[in-house]
What does this fold into?
Amino acid sequence: MTTPKTRRERNLAEIRERALPLAERIVLDEGMAALNARRLARDLGVSVGSLYNAFGDLPAVVRAVIDRSSQMLADRLHDAVAAAKPEPRARVMALGVAYLEFAIAEPRRWWLLFEYRNTVSPDRKVEEFQIGLLDMLIEAGGGDPRSESSKQFFLLLWASVHGLVSLACRPTIVAIDPEMARTFVGELVNSGFDRYPTD
It folds into this structure.
């Protein structure tokens, strides 16, 4: 039988539940620089101390926002694989297009996942997320996640797709057309599979 939570534990859980969507909205609407503990606590109607009691520190709030974005991307990619034709090439192509579409539709979330993290040391959860994505890609492509050659091949293939996506979703003077980018994702995957026949 589970011991009932104390009033303090319930209060801290409520703060976490309310803080996450608010922090997420601030980051996605205004950028990471707009998120600070004082503002978040004020908007929640709690003290900064209560906010820290609930999360530990502000980076923990940011990690929670990133975790939600990680789950959104993982769900999109899983759905893409499930809806694709069963051939490895088609499944990997579906992953590439889904990844591109996520980045275009959710550029701030994509930045949180793949650019913001470049400035912080990865934690265990980040590493598990990245390994999970790589394993999904390898399995979708008909490779063996335990094989170092499979890992290296799919890492190199995905590096080229990631490079294209990073340019397509970045605001630049000369923007990449999304439809053209989708075509090139397919060409990158086809070119890679021509060097690694699995279908």
Observations:
- The chain has a mean pLDDT of 86.
